[in-house]
Amino acid sequence: MAAKRRRAPGGGRKPKGEFVGKSATITTRIRPDTRDELETAARTNGRSLSQEAELRLRANLRPTDAQRRNRALGHAITLLAESIEKPTGRSWLEDPFTGRALRYAIEHFAFYFAAISTDGTVEVPPGIKEEASKMPDLFAEQFRQPAGFGHTRAHFLIAELESAARLLAGVPPNESDMPFFSLADGPMLFSAHETVLGNLGRDLGLAVKKSREK
Question: Which of 14, 105, 117, 159 is the most exposed place for a label (fewest CB within 10 A)?
Fold first, then answer.
């Protein structure tokens, strides 16, 4: 009888996703509808079921990257969006009335909870002053103001989401993309953080938004 062939270390099917070195196992039972949703997410994101499960487990086991107050803010904004879309029956991404209502709702919510000064003045944090000292005078003056600093951070996040969404869709990066992702040899691999950014950009309708702008 022919001897049974043994698979060489590292042989077999390559992982369809960003996680390598998956040697530990876990056995558990889940509801059929949970598996169906996980399989749908895996197909949508171009991953294997195992890779999709790994990403979601890691994302939920490592929530300490964000402060609790910021996670609470994200959850609250989700509740606001759902409460506005339900009576309008429309998506805030597609309907101007719903989109504007959500904008004002977020503004009012943040104004209620965020720190304010009684006399209208604000102290510029030392870290902002240091960053501004490296900028041209006109841009630095805007950066030292809450509105200018907030707009800058929003611009950077939008640019990161756009870059990550393009990479997730298989579009080669260009020199204007940010952040500059480190790419592995062969197929493009994403870190969990980069993949999350790409998925966020996709779910926020960046592809649809760009097509409308053309």
Answer: 117
